Amino acid sequence: MTQRIVILGGGTGGTLVANRLHRHYHRADRDVTITVIDQDNHHLYQPGLLFVPFGLAHRQEIVRPRHEQLHKDVEFIECGIDQVNRERDIVVLADGREIAYDLLVIATGSRLALDETEGLDGPGWNEKVFTFYDLPGATALEAALADFDGGRLVVNVVDMPIKCPVAPLEFCFLADWYFTERGIRDKVEITYVTPLDGAFTKPVASEALASLLEEKGVRLVTEFNTGEVDGAGGRLIGYDGREVPFDLAVVIPLHSGAEYVGRSEGLGDELNFVPTNKSTLQSLAKQNIFAIGDATNVPASKAGSVTHFEGEVLVDNIVRFLEGRDLCSTFDGHANCFIETGFGKALLIDFNYETEPLPGHFPSRVGMPLLKESRMNHLGKLMFQWFYWHALLQGRNMPGIGADMPEHGKQHPNTAPEEALV
Amino acid sequence: MSTATIAGTAVELNDEGFFVDPTQWTRDIAIELAAADGIVSLTDQHWQVIDFMRKEYFEKGTGPTVRVLGKTSGVSVKDLYQLFPKGPAKMAARIAGIPKPKGCI
After folding, report:
1. Whole-complex ipTM
2. CB–CB contacts below 8 A, A to B
3. In CATH terms, is domain A3-47+61-109+258-322 a member of 3.50.50.60?
4. Are A402 and A24 in contact (CB under 8 A)?
5. Which pLDDT belongs to residue A414?
6. Residues with Cβ within 8 Å of residue A233, at least 6 apart in sequence
7. What is the DSSP string of A89-151?
8. Residue B102 placed within a domain
């Protein structure tokens, strides 16, 4: 009997899972249909958004048709999703069609919930207040930065979790570089405003990144919970009454899961993320529903690298589930990201659920420097875009880099360096 | 990590003053911790938040963030800041005897 796998979302996770599943079942000669559903046909290379405001990336380089990233035997349906009915095992589309499944994968990522912050999309939105977390915003910000001749630039994270938690810091580093290149760095005051109690969540990386901010003359305001954005008056207002004035604000809005998740009974949490087993990636909603990437509530970064590493585990568990076997593949929370620091350099961090980002080398003691600025990491970041379109979305692994976090080459605190290098 | 005696009970705290073992907590401990943090008396609304945080912790393994607290505890984010002026998620977590909420990765 044909088994029907339906994947909601044709972004990073949905695409790489569809292609991995196709390869597995094609080789195994099994009768399985794979369908991907998305509301539009524009696959956005999201890491590229960071570079758009600085004129370093453009729409035509970072957007491609979704269906072209999928194997031709994977069906692609372009339509909005009304809801998932987990009792009947069907997806109801926005046009009323009902799509039945044996196994469902939720890969619809997260969305920007502007309406969760008072005044954010009110007066001044896309004039003095911007976001670079979507393409229209990043494009509008490019023009605004080009016109900016000096004043107070404020970069504000409204609340966690957000996609790519290092991107707002990278934005600060690149802004420092950008205004230096334009010869007006001394006229621009850059402030990073975060709800966290430091520059980043994990202690060792937080300290390293805070020193970098200081080195680049970026002021750091911590434990600021943005209650209101007053675009017309040019100020962020915290719930605790503190205010941060700005001439130009770059705001990373609160994230939530897709809206249809909220309309689907028993599927999501209070922010429409899908409660998911952090090891097996099976949803808690029903056994035949799995989830991947930003759409889940697993305590890992919302980032493409996490989704990539999850893909291998998820596909193995889907195959096991459909064959009636136990799920035994487990995800360790592995994340890996380049942090662009401006002036042609970047940092690299690598971590998982248990191990925070540490200094050392990746993937082994002979490799790229971790938590340290280098030109090599910057080139790695640029090369990654090629890898994304040609290997990652096709569901291929990076040579020598598996789903589990490599321990070799990491330097743990309180250990002598030579000991850590073994 | 260190051991402190609060309201007559020996408890283990981490470097930031959060409980290591939430089962060591008692309501008398909460009253004393709140007083030390400048909350003279805990109102019904304070207790509503404290009880909610403990329930969330034991169900989900981590306390809620401010935003989630505002959506699910029955107390708005603005009111949460009135109740726990030093930042609701952290301050309430400390008083409620649970580890610092992780919500932020």
Report:
1. 0.79
2. 45
3. yes
4. no
5. 64
6. none
7. TEEEETTS-EEE-SEEEE---EEE-GGGSBTTTSTTBTTTEE-SSSHHHHHHHHHHHHH--SE
8. no
DSSP three-state, residue B17: coil
Residue of A116, A160, A162, A298 to mutate for B, most B C-beta atoms under 10 A? A160
Q: Which residues of A touch B75 (CB under 8 A)?
A: none
Residue B104 near chain A (CB below 8 Å): yes
Task: From A20, A51, A9, select the one nearest A338 (Cα to Cα).
Answer: A51
Domain count, chain B: 1
Closest by CA to A334, choosing from A312, A351, A316, A347, is: A351
Task: Sketch the domain layout of chain A as residue ranges.
Answer: 3-47+61-109+258-322, 114-255, 335-420
d(CA A325, CA A351): 30
State whether residue B38 sits within 8 Å of chain A by CB: no
Q: What is the average pLDDT value for chain B, to the nearest integer?
A: 88
CATH number of the structural domain spanning residue B15: 1.10.10.370
Angle between helices B27-36 and B88-95 (to 10 degrees): 130
- The parent domain of residue B79 ranges over 2-95
Q: How many angstroms separate the CA atoms of A376 and A347, rounded?
A: 9
Q: Is A20 strand, coil or helix?
A: helix
Q: Please compute the mean of the pLDDT values over residues A350-375 and round it to a whole number.
A: 89
**B30's tokens:** 């909460």
Task: Give the pLDDT confidence of B7-36 residue by residue, as tens digits.
Answer: 888 999 988 889 999 999 999 999 999 999
Tell me: the pLDDT tens digits for A32-49? 999 999 999 999 999 999
Q: Does B37 reside within a domain?
A: yes
C-beta of residue A312 within 8 angstroms of C-beta of residue A17: no
Facing B85 at nearest CB: one of A116, A240, A271? A240
State how far the Cα of B1 lies from the Cα of B20, in Å rounded to an integer.
Answer: 8
Structure tokens at A243: 């205010």
Spatial separation of the C-alpha atoms in residues A15 and A27, rounded to whole Å: 18
- B53 belongs to a structural domain: yes
Of the candidates A111, A144, A399, which has an alpha carbon nearest to the alpha carbon of residue A253? A111
pLDDT (mean) for A414-420? 48
Tell whether B103 is covered by a domain. no
- Tens digits of per-residue pLDDT, A230-260? 999 999 999 888 999 999 999 999 999 999 9
Across chain B, where does the E strand assignment appear? 2-6, 9-13
- Chain A contact for B14 (CB, 8 A cutoff): no
- The top-level CATH class assigned to A114-255 is alpha beta
pTM score: 0.91
